Amino acid sequence: MPGPAPAVAAARVAVRRWVDRAGLGPDALVLVACSGGADSLALAAATGFEGPRRGLRVGAVVVDHDLQPGSAEVAQVAADRCRSLLPAGASVEVTRVGVRATSAGPEADAREARYAALAFWADRLGAAAVLLGHTRDDQAEQVLLGLARGSGARSLAGMPDHRVLTGDVVLGRPLLGLTRVQTAACCDALGVTPFADPHNQDEHFARVRARRALTELDSVLGPGLVANLARSADLLRGDADALDDLAEQAYREMGDQPWDVHALRRLAPAVRTRLWRRLAREAGSPGTDLSSEHLLAVDALVSDWSGQGPLHLPGGVRAGRAGDRVWLRREA
Question: Were both Cys, which of 204, 237, 260, 330 would link to 157 (CB 3.0–4.6 Å)?
């Protein structure tokens, strides 16, 4: 008997390896976040095949962002396609969210609403993991956007294949090693028609512009650009993790503010900027508005102080220095 099509096999292997690494307990529930696009349908199909073979229960959540006419119908079609790919009786939930507009932009606002909905359903259904269909192409776009924004190592490290979503629930990305060509081929082999989101052609969105730029860069610099950017993200992630560990240790040793300048100077600048980001966010500064320029200005209170300050950070947070002591807090 012939085996599955190569793209179908690749998706199944990717899910199998992710599940094995995750070490989920027997009878754990794994939810697939499904948009109806090729990536998430390929993920649903692979998870529906591999999950039961590893003693897992499988379900799906379809999030309707209510941002386009007919979005409710699109969500229902996505749910129906998920049901056809998952084991009989699998829980497939459709949930509509309200996307609150903020200064972070429409993509970030939709993502925040989507992740909140996924966390809600994971908690309600008792899921151990929620899986997303991000591919290697998405990873490359993430790195390119980080480069364009002048971001640091953590942003350039791209998306990890797992992180905490909420509580004990893991957010997983099993398909980061696959391409969009493969997920589309997977759907084609399975006879599933994915939804073509018109937002994926709308160049008002930064990610769509990054996608076009990658295509142009690939033709100029040669093939392999997407794979190389994704590989760079993997390499940088290890460096960023090591720096985060050092920053965590320094955070635990800082004590109450105001903090001693001489002790802070003994830390590497890359560790200090991580501390400032964490402390500013804890004080109430929104992470989406907190830029590297803000963090470098705070660090200059330690490394290059000539009487400047106090500094005004987003969210009404202030940072300053008095003598050999530095402080950072939110003012009424």
Answer: 237
